[in-house]
Amino acid sequence: SGPTTITNGAYVNGNEYEHDGSDPLYPSTLADNFSTANVPTAADLISFSAHTVDTQIRLDWQTANELDTLGFNILRGTENSFVQSQAINENLILAQATGGLDGSSYSYPDSQVAENTIYYYWLEEVTTSGSTIHYGPIIAHLKLPYTQFLPIVQH
Questions:
Q1: Cα 84 to Cα 25, 28, 119, distances in angstroms
Q2: Which pLDDT tens digit goes with each residue over 111-149?
């Protein structure tokens, strides 16, 4: 099958201060201060997709701009549960166009995958203020080509 793509799906997770000015509650839902229905994201995500390449799954994403984006993390799980997923990149994948109106294209290979296992991936955008925005999940699995052996028949 072809690539799985998600376009512009996001929710925001942050540590905003409460109405009375007290320290933020964590994790914050942002819902007590304003609606998340039209929250602008720091990066305008154009696409987020997964492709099988040899013995790995390659994750690709593209942004239209990265006004307040510091970088990205990729999270993976074997269930459709964000809270049970884990980051697979050791270091933050730094944004290539932080503060700019230009976007960038990114690619990250996930080579720690097993054949015929379904994986769920989320893209986590980290903003310059430290809040996070999550995109996904997208679903992928490694399906290796098989070799068929035919008998040699001699006459």
A1: 21, 18, 12
A2: 999 988 999 999 999 999 999 999 999 999 887 666 556
